[in-house]
Every structure is written in structure tokens, then in C-alpha cells.
Design brief:
Length: about 300
């Protein structure tokens, strides 16, 4: 059985939280797929990694041709809806995104999406995850990664009173997060051309929803960690978190909130490299018995120059 690195809960309330997140992100960004991504192909193949309830694919399906193929992947099927509740072209599968891509999925997809892996990425290094999702892409395919940049979170006080909202921010920052701001550079390391790095903050009417969502994450994180801890002092730290989340919700009703940064990075996988094109021309010329000297020199200069 694949190791599950998910640090928060699954179940009824977590599923509702994931569906709320879909609404918040769509409302904040104004899109499910960034406008730089070409979606005109009626046979488009889309993968959603870490699909959860599949809600992103369900909403996207109404924006694409009925002939598009939409596949969701998650390490657990616990939050998958029944297949009868999904659009006909949406299918959900179990897969571990921190392991190498299965051979049958390599180079299969035109678009790969992933969102909110902040609690999954370890050691401040998204390399393994990036290598997996890049392997899913066809040459010329698009990768979209949506993430909170928690370094840019700003708790807002109620007058001079310290709010529990600041503590919620502190807990969320326990997850390694430096890699989020580096995502464009991490894309480039994997050979992706960065097409967009869209960053925006929440709208005023989203503030309480965002805080409610974050408080649920804190409560789920506490519950998950308490099941795995034996050290008494560590357990006390996590036992206190639900009360912090409840107080933060009360503080929010009095005007406290934190400002959050939504970040979307879009990259495109290259087509065959210039080197491969030159090598192929060399092979074809040798195979045909051609006089190579001038012809291949001109071909190399044209392709590489």
C-alpha cells in the first residue's frame, strides 16, 4: 500500500471544505484554467493530481467539449463521489504523485492541474512531485499549479487586541512553504517554459470563508497528528489547536481576518529538443546514404543557430 503523506483529515467535513475551496479559488481568480492554456482541442486530455472530491474536474467539464477526457488522481479514493454522480467524461483513479509516473500515463495529457500541496511537500522541496506531473504531460502540454503563498499571510488585528487569527496563521506556517514562491524557478529546472505567475489577494467578501476554511484545516491537522503522537508534551500542543480555531472564528465575527495570497504558476513542456531534431536528420541522412559534409553542417547551423 502506498505511503499516505496527507497531514489532514478525510471525511464529510473535509470533503465540504474541499468543495468550498473550489468556490473560493474560482471566485478569486476568475478562471479554473489560466487563459494562457489552450483548450480548443475537442479531444483534450486533462489530469487533476490530488483531485480530492473531483470538484475541479466536475466544474471544468462544463467548460470543455463533451469529447474531452478528464482524469482525476489521488492517493486515496475516500472522498471520491460515486461514478454515477460524475459527468460521463470524468473518471477518478488512485495514484501516488510522490512516486514515479506509471508507464501507461507517461506523455498522455495536454493539461495537468494540481492545487494545494502545501501539507504534502516535504523538506521544502517539490522536485519529486514536479517530476511526476511533468512526466504526465505530452510535448507542448501545460502544467498549472495553484498554491497559497503562506509566507505572505498577514493577520489583521481587532484594534490593539491580539487575535487568535494570528495563531491560526502561525500553525499554517508550520508546513514548509519557501518552495511556493520559488515555483517559477522550480518549473524552469524541469525544462518548463513559464507562461504565467499570477498572484492576487482575496476579495473582502471572501475573508470569513477563507478563515473558516483555514480553521477547519487546523482542526483536521490537530486530529490527524494526535492519532500519531505518543509524546505527552507534543500532544498537548495539538490538543490546544481546536480551541484556537474556534476563538479565531469568533474573532472573525468581530472583524479580524488574515490576508491570503493565491498563486498560480503555468508552464509549458517543450516539444522535441533541437538536439533531437538534428540527431534525427543525421540518422535519416546516413540511412539514405547521402553526402553528409555540407548538408549536415547547414542543417546543424539552421537548427542550433
Amino acid at each position: 500500500m502506498a505511503k499516505d503523506n496527507y497531514n489532514i483529515e478525510r471525511g464529510l467535513v473535509p470533503a465540504l471544505r474541499l468543495n468550498l475551496q473550489q468556490y473560493i479559488w474560482r471566485d478569486a481568480l476568475g478562471y479554473d484554467l489560466h487563459p494562457s492554456i489552450d483548450t480548443h482541442d475537442p479531444r483534450l486530455k486533462v489530469a487533476d493530481v490530488g483531485t480530492g472530491t473531483g470538484i475541479w474536474l466536475v466544474k471544468l467539464s462544463s467548460q470543455l467539449a463533451a469529447t474531452a477526457q478528464l482524469d482525476g488522481f489521488d492517493i486515496s479514493s475516500d472522498q471520491f463521489p460515486h461514478e454515477s454522480s460524475l459527468p460521463p467524461n470524468v473518471h477518478l483513479h488512485t495514484s501516488n504523485a510522490l512516486e514515479p509516473c506509471p508507464p501507461e500515463l507517461r506523455g498522455k495529457y495536454d493539461v495537468v492541474n494540481l492545487r494545494l500541496f502545501l501539507a504534502v511537500v516535504k523538506n521544502d522541496d517539490p522536485t519529486a512531485l514536479l517530476q511526476h506531473v511533468c512526466s504526465l504531460l505530452k510535448p507542448g502540454g501545460f502544467l498549472q499549479w495553484c498554491e497559497w503563498d503562506s509566507i505572505e499571510q498577514k493577520p489583521i488585528k481587532i484594534g490593539d487586541t491580539e487575535s487568535a487569527v494570528a495563531k491560526v496563521c502561525e500553525v499554517l506556517n508550520w508546513f514548509p512553504k519557501g518552495w511556493v514562491a520559488r515555483l517559477p524557478q522550480e518549473f524552469q529546472k524541469q525544462g518548463l517554459k513559464v507562461l504565467a505567475n499570477h498572484r492576487c489577494r482575496e476579495k473582502p467578501w471572501q475573508r470569513e470563508m477563507l478563515l473558516d476554511n483555514s480553521c477547519l484545516v487546523v482542526e483536521e491537522f490537530s486530529s490527524r497528528m494526535l492519532r500519531n503522537l505518543s509524546d505527552a508534551e507534543e500532544k498537548r500542543k495539538y490538543e490546544a489547536l481546536p480551541a484556537v480555531a474556534q476563538q479565531a472564528k469568533l474573532d472573525a465575527r468581530r472583524g479580524a481576518y488574515f490576508s491570503q495570497v493565491f498563486q498560480v504558476v503555468v508552464g509549458q513542456k517543450g516539444t522535441r529538443s533541437k538536439f533531437v531534431q538534428v540527431a534525427n536528420e543525421l540518422f535519416q541522412a546516413v540511412k539514405g546514404g547521402a553526402d553528409l559534409t555540407g548538408k549536415l553542417r547547414r542543417s546543424a547551423e539552421r537548427r542550433l543557430g
